[in-house]
Amino acid sequence: MIQVRNLTKYYGDLAAIQDVSFTVEKGEVLGFLGPNAAGKTTTMRILTGFLPPSSGTARVAGYDVLTDSLEVRRRIGYLPETVPLYPEMTVWSYLNFVARLRGVEKREKRVAEVMEICHVDDHANVLIGKLSKGYRQRVGLAQALVHDPEVLILDEPTLGLDPKQIIEVRELIRSLGGERTIILSTHILPEVSQTCQRVLIINEGRIVAEDTPERLTARLKGAERIYLEVANPSPQVEAELARIEGVTAVESKGDGSYEVECALGVDRRPEIAATAVRHGWGLLEMRPMGMSLEEIFLKLTTE
């Protein structure tokens, strides 16, 4: 559905993005993750046809964003970081206005549908300027959906919302997944892990990782970590675990639980279990631990 190849954009001598390449399949929800000023918004603006690349190509549904920008825009619903709303208009009149600009047939029916999808139908006659930020964000999402696009591009959709509003908008995005191809651009880590099937991480204008959250975790571990819980903890537990060959660190988490870090390459769990039995610790649980998405993000954007 979306193919990006060697995309580069310069502002004067400054490269905002360099040789960015990725694909997004039909019906996939891709998390486009990176710190502020990493190149996320520049990439989104190129994909939506609002900004020409310096070099490289990007295609949406087979159409080139540079030479077929009108066709691309017909197929994309875009929610920018700053939602283009008119505070003096009601929700219904604004969405009807957008639908008319988009050339939507049976406008009133489609506006009613997107208001229901985005849960703003009970605010149809309320002035946008009177809405909470959470509801304004819903209206912004409704305008991105009003022409029934194949692709949704959402740039920081929960920025500035309170926790309750964030949960509501995330649930709405999840409900749209599968029906449409979605790119979710964000620097908020839980956003990606809770809504996206695949993660693309950008830093300083370059793609530094691309995979599912689970595969990124497995691939980027610098060491194996094991969670251990015993019934009879004592100060000797850490010392005995540290003596096991290949164990590089042991950290007590309290209440008889420990995190054991081991060098890559050999499964140390059999020896850890044998040590626990030998010393009568009463082994309750032992399982491998993966890196969190937060740890992966920090590792890739600070190296």
Describe the 3D structure.
The structure is a single chain. This protein is of the alpha/beta class and 303 residues long. Helix content is 36%, strand content 29%. The protein contains eleven helices and 14 strands.
Q: What is the count of helical runs?
A: 11
CATH architecture of the largest domain: 3-Layer(aba) Sandwich
CATH class of the largest domain: Alpha Beta
Q: Could you say how many structural domains there are in total?
A: 2
The largest sheet is:
6 strands, mixed
Helicity range: 25-40%
Overall form: elongated
Overall strand count: 14
Topology at a glance:
Elements: E1 2-11, E2 14-24, E3 29-33, H1 40-47, E4 55-60, E5 63-64, H2 69-75, E6 76-79, H3 91-101, H4 107-117, H5 133-145, E7 151-155, H6 163-176, E8 181-186, H7 189-195, E9 198-203, E10 206-211, H8 213-220, E11 224-230, H9 235-243, E12 247-254, E13 257-262, H10 269-278, E14 283-289, H11 293-302
Parallel strand pairs: 3-8, 3-9, 6-7, 7-8
Antiparallel strand pairs: 1-2, 1-4, 4-5, 9-10, 11-13, 11-14, 12-13
Helix pairs in contact: 3-4, 4-5, 5-6
Summarize the structure.
The protein has eleven helices and 14 strands. With 303 residues, the protein is α/β, with parallel strands linked by helices.
